[in-house]
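Researcher: Re-running this chain for the archive, since the previous output was lost when a drive failed. Same request as before.
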Amino acid sequence: MDIPVFEENIEPRTLYVVATPIGNLADITLRALYILENVDLIACEDTRRTALLLQYYGIEKPLISFHSHSGKKRFTEIRDRLETETIALVSDAGSPCVSDPGAELVAYLIQNGFSIRPIPGPSAAISALSASGLDTREFTFRGFLGKKGLRQRVKEILKCPETQIVYESPQRLVNLLRLICEIDPNRDVVVAREVTKLYEEFIRKTAKECLEYFADKEVKGEITLLIAGDHKKAVYTEEEVAKLLKERFDQGQSLRDATKELAKELGIPKNSIYEIGLNITRQ
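Model: Regenerated structure tokens:
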């Protein structure tokens, strides 16, 4: 494939953070291909996996590994090589540094005076959210929840009014669904499996129904779990919200701070509260 030529110089002392496909190899931007073809070196989570992507697009570049087990020596090596070479950072799939060890490298290089340039593209979390059918106005990305204190974390997450996005391994999905069911079996959830791949699957059901669906299955592939926000809170009229806002204004709070507090307390979208507050200030 001939890579288009862009009027973009590959800048020195700059790490290019390049998003790569999460499954379908066609889901890569032309700019990402241009950067990968024109840098001197590519740092990647798994050199074998990245080599397959580069081979598919006819790109030949030296690769070095950078992953969660990379020691301090690799950090300093990349720092030193950035003095004279141009480098791109990629993960196994999706956007590097999001629930990914690349975040530590980026922080380290910023502290050492280097520039970071994002080359946007695929993200499993955002792709799953866009097709979930859940409320997308506000959401929280949790990454992998892990094993330690999982039950307590699930309890806290289920109290949140905004949509929650979680990554989970296929081996632990059923256990996570079971914990959600113990607290709120009727909560709407979406299990997005193998997004953009051949066997892509979206299961949109209650937590209880999803648990029943997956309980006896051998779950495989990449999993993104989306959990609807807690909407079982009291319904507040505009007059009631306005009264609560006025009380906070009388206490010296700004509209911004009062909006943030009430949104968290009442489970109402910030923009709705802010509009009511603006009407008060205009009176």
